[in-house]
Specification:
alpha/beta, 5-stranded parallel sheet, 38% helix, globular, Rossmann fold
Length: 337
C-alpha cells in the first residue's frame, strides 16, 4: 500500500452535506493539491456502466441527456485513469465524491449482489460464459483499487440534508440541476455506511475501539486512528479546529489562510453540476456560524409543509427518518476537537 501521505485523499460523502464548502477549503491549496470534484458521478449517471436510473432508457430524452452531458462514454476505469493522470502533476490528489456512486442503488439489478464494474473487473472474476462472478465487495471497484486512496468521510444530519436535496429536484432550481424529480434512494447514507463498514472490515481504515475489541492492538495502549469522519455541524461551528484536525489526520500541512478565498474563484469544475453548488460558489470563506438554529420536528414539518406541500413534506420526513440510523452509526466515529 502506498504511504498515506502520498495516496490521493478521498472524501466520501452524501448529497447536501456541505461538502462543496469543505472542498473549497482545499481548492486554495492549488500549489500542492489537485482537487477533483465528484469524478465518479460521470460513470454513475451517464456512462455505459451507469448505475443510476435517473437517465436510464432508450427514449430520446434519456439519450439526449446522457449525450449532452459530455460523459456518455465515461466508465469507472476512465475515471480512475483521470485520477491517475492528475497524480502525475507532482501534486497530491484530493477527491470529493459521493459514496453512492460506488455502491449500486436500491433500484439497480446488482443491488446487494456486489458485481464489479466491467471496465475494472479482472479477467479472473469472469466465468466461462463471460458473466462476472460476484465477489464479497459491496462496491463496483476492486479492493486493490480502494486501497490506493486515503479515505475520509463527511456526514450531515438527514433532517437538514434531505430537504436541501429535495429543493434541488423541483422548480425552479431543477431547471439548473437537470434533476427533474426527487429520488429518495439518492440520499446516500446507506451507501456511505456500506462503504465505511467494508473498508473497516478490510482494514483499509482502522479505529482504536474496534481494534481493541478484536484484540489487534499487539499490547499497545494507543493505536493510530485513521478513521476520519467529519460532521457538518461540527465543521460549521468550528471550521478552523475541524480543518486543522483533518489536515493532521490526512498528512496535510494546515494553514489558516485555507479558510478564506475569493467568491467564484476556481469554480470551473462545478459547472457539470450546475445549481447544486451556488451557495459554495458565491462564498468567500468558511467561518464559524454565529447562531446555531435548533428546530423541533414539528417546526421542521411546518416549514416543509409551507414550502413544498403536504405530500412532499411527508416524503422528506420519511426519507430523513429512513436514513437516520445510518447517520447515527457514522456519527459515532466523528472527529471531536
Amino acid at each position: 500500500m502506498v504511504p498515506s501521505e502520498e495516496r490521493p485523499i478521498f472524501v466520501a460523502t452524501h448529497p447536501r452535506s456541505c461538502s462543496t464548502a469543505f472542498e473549497r477549503v482545499f481548492m486554495t491549496r492549488e500549489k500542492d493539491l489537485c482537487c477533483l470534484h465528484e469524478p465518479f458521478g460521470d460513470a454513475f449517471y451517464y456512462g455505459p456502466e451507469r448505475l443510476s436510473s435517473r437517465y436510464e432508457g432508450d427514449h430520446n430524452d434519456a439519450i439526449d441527456d446522457r449525450e449532452n452531458s459530455g460523459f456518455h462514454e465515461a466508465t469507472y476505469n476512465s475515471v480512475l485513469e483521470e485520477i491517475e493522470r492528475s497524480g502525475k502533476e507532482e501534486k497530491r490528489v484530493f477527491i470529493k465524491d459521493m459514496a453512492c456512486y460506488l455502491v449500486p442503488p436500491s433500484d439497480h439489478p446488482t443491488f446487494d449482489k456486489a458485481v464489479l464494474a466491467p471496465s475494472v473487473t479482472p479477467s479472473a472474476t469472469y466465468n466461462g460464459n463471460g458473466v462476472s462472478i460476484p465477489v464479497k465487495n459491496p462496491t463496483v471497484l476492486p479492493l486493490s483499487i480502494l486501497k490506493r486512496f486515503q479515505f475520509a468521510f463527511l456526514i450531515r444530519n438527514p433532517r437538514k440534508a434531505v430537504p436541501s436535496y429535495y429543493r434541488c429536484c423541483i422548480p425552479p432550481l431543477n431547471e439548473m440541476t437537470g434533476f427533474k424529480y426527487f429520488m429518495p434512494n439518492e440520499a446516500g447514507y446507506r451507501e456511505l455506511r456500506v462503504l465505511f463498514e467494508y473498508l473497516l472490515k478490510e482494514k483499509v481504515i482502522k479505529h482504536p475501539s474496534l481494534q481493541a475489541a478484536n484484540g489487534e492492538t499487539n499490547g499497545e495502549h494507543s493505536v493510530y486512528n485513521n478513521v476520519c469522519v467529519i460532521d457538518a455541524d461540527d465543521l460549521l461551528d468550528n471550521p478552523k479546529g475541524i480543518i486543522e484536525k483533518f489536515c493532521e489526520m490526512t498528512g496535510l500541512e494546515f494553514d489558516e489562510k485555507m479558510l478564506e478565498w475569493g467568491a467564484h474563484e476556481g469554480c470551473e469544475n462545478f459547472d457539470k453540476w450546475k445549481g447544486f453548488h451556488e451557495d459554495a460558489i458565491g462564498s468567500s470563506g468558511l467561518r464559524p456560524r454565529t447562531k446555531k438554529k435548533f428546530r423541533t420536528r414539528e417546526e421542521e414539518m411546518q416549514e416543509w409543509l409551507e414550502k413544498y406541500g403536504e405530500e412532499a413534506a411527508a416524503v422528506i420526513d420519511r426519507t430523513a427518518d429512513e436514513n437516520m440510523e445510518d447517520y447515527e452509526f457514522l456519527r459515532r466515529f466523528r472527529v471531536v476537537v
